[in-house]
Amino acid sequence: MHRPAPVRRARTAVTALLLGLAVSLPTGPAGAAPAAPAPAAPAPVSAVAAASAAPRYGQRSSAVRALQNRLIAAGLLKAELNTGFFGDSTRAAVRALQRKAGLSASGTVTAATDRALDRAVDAATGPRTWYHRETIGTSAEGRAIRAYRAGQPGKPVVVVLATMHGEENFGQYVARGLLEGRKIKGVDLWVVPVLNPDGLVRDRRWLRGGVDLNRNFPHRWIERANSGPKAVSAQETKVTMRFLDRVDPRYVVSWHQPLIGVDSYGVKDRRLMNRLSKGLGIKTRRLDCHGSCHGTMTGWFNAHHAGAAITIEYGSTARSMARMKGRDANAVLTAVGGRRG
């Protein structure tokens, strides 16, 4: 069945953001549904140049990681395999895509394979729940940090954050689940799928200068390796604080990996913690940063806002895409008082 073009463009824009690609998403007033940007006309590229630019077996590059992220979004590759290296697992996923699309299963990324992957990602992307999107700031390297708004204005504000550390990519798929599917009711939901776009592109934990975003907030900050030269020295820290101060949520849910647990260290709302633990099937765990946490986002928010922030950690092995986008996203929504409508 032919899918209307505006829906396809909106789905593609969300998916591209989650895959760490450079996509320009227009801002607009709260409550508005901005029109999808018109695609730029592609520059002419020769067949030889296009073939040489395509990721290939044995290669390690950001282009390979981008390919892997698209394969993950299409449900063809496990989320922990976005290593940037085109090895046997990636080639097997490409071959599976090619067989499904009726192409020669060579494992080589051709132009036809690339188009087939676009269609597979689109088919795996549900209708959008959000009605507003905005750039809340930029990273140190100039990449946009974007927030999506869904749900009902006037209801309790909830924020879901993911990819604070660039190599911790699983949480963005829960974020994607909240941005897709049936409309959200009962909460005024903001979703920031990628807080550290520079790190995501490079599969790197740190911000520019080796700063850990989750050690740079002005609460019990101490100078040590990766905390930055001073509190709030990182541009991404400023962006996060400014956004959370503005929307002032009742709940903040922050996704990490690979320590597997719903954090009980310094927990501010135990009932929220227990609802998340039960719904996600993840046990509570004291994630105390090897003794005491300094400069964390949750610590700062809980000390300076009336609302409650909490950390959830997935393990080192990803759950299925269907689980993360479906059951886990809905478990978070239920725990914070929302529902699908």
From TrEMBL:
One annotated GO molecular function: zinc ion binding
Family that this chain belongs to: Belongs to the peptidase M14 family.
Cofactors that this protein relies on: Zn(2+)
UniProt GO BP: proteolysis
UniProt superkingdom: Bacteria
Membrane-spanning ranges: none
CC per GO annotation: extracellular space
Signal sequence interval, chain numbering: 1-32
Keywords: Hydrolase, Metalloprotease, Protease, Signal, Zinc
SUPFAM superfamilies xrefs: PGBD-like, Zn-dependent exopeptidases
Lineage: Bacteria, Bacillati, Actinomycetota, Actinomycetes, Propionibacteriales
The protein's name: Putative peptidoglycan binding domain-containing protein
Stretches assigned to the Peptidase M14 domain: 107-341
InterPro entries named in the record: Peptidase_M14 (IPR000834), Peptidoglycan-bd-like (IPR002477), PGBD-like_sf (IPR036365), PGBDSf (IPR036366)
